């Protein structure tokens, strides 16, 4: 098996131990400011067209691992990766893979639905009645 196969297997094992790719991505997103935080960072980094495709109807445009790293910041990404015991490029690749579908599911009406994204730390809507 090649070194890339070994790394892929190790990352797969790690992800399984942490509840799956989406669970790991959601935990990482919490550290990066929640789903709305990372969406805002991606828009600010020039990835607004991709983000809009996730929010709207139709196919989701991809974002690259480099785009994720640029939006989160290499320092923060490094801290997050260290927390999970993976390389920063592995974490940014995972986030790039999972984030478009996650945002798409959290935005059925074209805007992020905070009550659906609480596990990903989406802030509550000002329209929600106080309990």
From TrEMBL:
<protein>
    <submittedName>
        <fullName>DUF937 domain-containing protein</fullName>
    </submittedName>
</protein>
<dbReference type="Pfam" id="PF20159">
    <property type="entry name" value="YidB"/>
</dbReference>
<feature type="region of interest" description="Disordered">
    <location>
        <begin position="106"/>
        <end position="131"/>
    </location>
</feature>
<dbReference type="InterPro" id="IPR045372">
    <property type="entry name" value="YidB"/>
</dbReference>
<dbReference type="InterPro" id="IPR027405">
    <property type="entry name" value="YidB-like"/>
</dbReference>
């Amino acid at each position: 098996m090649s070194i890339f196969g070994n790394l892929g297997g190790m990352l797969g094992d790690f992800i399984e131990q942490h509840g799956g790719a989406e669970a790991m991505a959601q935990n990482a997103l919490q550290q990066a400011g929640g789903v709305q935080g990372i969406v805002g960072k991606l828009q600010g980094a020039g990835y607004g067209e991709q983000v809009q495709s996730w929010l709207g109807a139709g196919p989701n445009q991809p974002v690259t691992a480099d785009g994720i790293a640029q939006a989160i910041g290499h320092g923060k990404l490094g801290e997050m990766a260290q927390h999970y015991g993976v390389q920063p490029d592995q974490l940014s690749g995972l986030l790039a893979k999972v984030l478009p579908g996650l945002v798409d599911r959290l935005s059925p009406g074209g805007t992020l639905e905070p009550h659906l994204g609480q596990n990903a730390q989406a802030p509550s809507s000002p329209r929600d009645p106080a309990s």
